[in-house]
Amino acid sequence: MEELCAENALLEPQGRYFVRRQDIHTEEHRQEGNWSRWLRARVSRAVVLYGESPFRVLSVAGAVIVGSALLYPLGLLRNSTTGQLMTYPTPTEPVALVTTLADSLYFSTLTFTTMTFGLYSPVGAGKFLTMLETGAGIVLMALLVFVFGRRATR
C-alpha cells in the first residue's frame, strides 16, 4: 500500500503506511531480543516518528529548553556581573519568580541554540546540564533539518 500511495502522490497515506511498517519492524526486533535496535527504533518513533514529524522534534526541543530552564534556578547559574547564584525566590515574591523564570528560559534558549551564555555562567552541575542541553540542541536541530528534507523529497 505504501508503494501504491507513493506512485499516486498520496503523501499522507504513504507516511502512515511507512510508520506502520516501521512499527512492525520494531516489534520484530523486540520479539527477536535485539534490544539495541528495538531501543533505537523506539527513540526514533518518539522523537521524529521515523522521520515523518517535524512537530515531534519541535516538541522535544521545547521540552528540553523548558526542563532545563526549570533546573537552572536551583543554584546552577551565576550572574556574571553581580556574582550571585540564580535561585528561586520565596513564594511571596511573584514578580521576582517571573523574572527568575524569564532569565532562566532566556539562558536555556541561548544555550540550546549554542549562541552564547549571555549574562549568566554555569557553575557546578550547571556545567554538565549546559553541556547536555547544547548537545541536545545540536542533535535536535540536525534532526529537524533531516525531517524537513525527507518530507520535501517525497
TrEMBL record:
Residue ranges occupied by any Potassium channel domain in the UniProt entry: 98-153
Q: Which InterPro entries match?
A: K_chnl_dom
Q: Which UniProt keywords apply?
A: Membrane, Transmembrane, Transmembrane helix
Q: Which domain of life is it from?
A: Archaea
The record's listing under SUPFAM superfamilies reads: Voltage-gated potassium channels
Q: Where are the transmembrane segments?
A: 55-74, 95-120, 126-148
Could you identify this protein by its name? Ion transport 2 domain-containing protein
